[in-house]
Structure formats: structure tokens, C-alpha cells
Amino acid sequence: MKIDVTSFDGQAAGSIELSDEVFGLEPRKDLIFRMIRWQLAKRRAGTHAVKNRAEIARSGKKLHKQKGTGGARHGSARAPQFRGGGRAFGPVVRSHAHDLTKKVRQLALKHALSAKAKDGGIIVWESAELAEPKTKLLASSFAKTGLENAIIIVGGAPQNNFVLAARNIPKIDILPVEGVNVYDILRREKLVLTRAAVDALEARLK
Fold it and tell me: What is the CATH number of domain 2-42+99-205?
């Protein structure tokens, strides 16, 4: 698959051939769904918790005599039915993570990239570098090219000037190629790759 390469302000900078093995697959929604579910589950803290009746600081003495009061036969004020009592079947601290093999995770990333390519959502830049960290300059370039909602993947560490200029622009994310993931790719309309990022992705996923 051949795609044009531009600068971030829309100037033509040649073209590049994208590997069909990485960007040309027929997208499988089931794989992409499994990967997103795995990512979102893995980042959940799982620290939600309540006190059950064994953890409540309250007397365990029987409330009243068993017979003769006309009341129900209660044994402890820590029971869930009383105000201030323990919670029945409440959440406990746990991990929400589940297993997903490395082979499936890699395949899901290929299908996410292929889905973007199929929808025409991939843009390739020559590089993502600025001479000075000016948000106004970068925002005007994005407005000129119609880039409003995008994730930008760069090869290696992102340039500091570019990161500083882009961080105040809403709906624009910047990641190194090592951090590329299915969820972030699909939550943005456009996927912007530098030429170095394309080479790194193809070397990693082929």
C-alpha cells in the first residue's frame, strides 16, 4: 500500500510503501475488542472495598432476649440489615486483569493499524520536530491540514519542543513507537506516523 508523506504543515515530502502484512489485513473486530477489554481491565485499580460484618467495630452482644420481646430473633448489631452494620456481598480489593497471549496482542495491533488504513485514517509525516516550542504555530499548521483529533506516533523519544507545543492542543496525543497500543489508536480519528515510526512498527510486527 503506497501512501504520501508530508510535513506536519502539509508540505509534500515524497511517498512510502506500507507493508500489507501490517497495514493491509482485513480488520477483525473480535480481536480488537478482546485487546481493548484487556487494556481497560489491566488499568483498573481494583481498590474498591467495603467492610463486612466481621470488620465492623460494634458490639457483638445479642440485641435482646430470644423470647418474650415480640421482636425478631436478632443476634448481632453488626448484621447488614442494621444501620451501621456490615455490607453484604460488597466489593473487595482484587485485580481485574486477565490473560491475553502475546501473539493475540500483536495480532490485534496489526488489525487496529489495518482498520485505520482501510478507513483512510493514517497520515505519514517525514518527522515531528519544531525549531521552537510554539503552540500557536503548531495549532495553525494543524488547522491548515484539518488535523483536529489525532494520535501522533514518533520513532524514538518525542522531541521536547514538539511535545511542549502540542500538549495544550485538545484531542492531540503524542506517543513514542514503544507505547503504541490498540485503545489509543482507535479512540482518535487520525493516526499520524512519522517515517521512523513506520519503519519501527514494520520491523516489530512482521
Answer: 3.40.1370.10
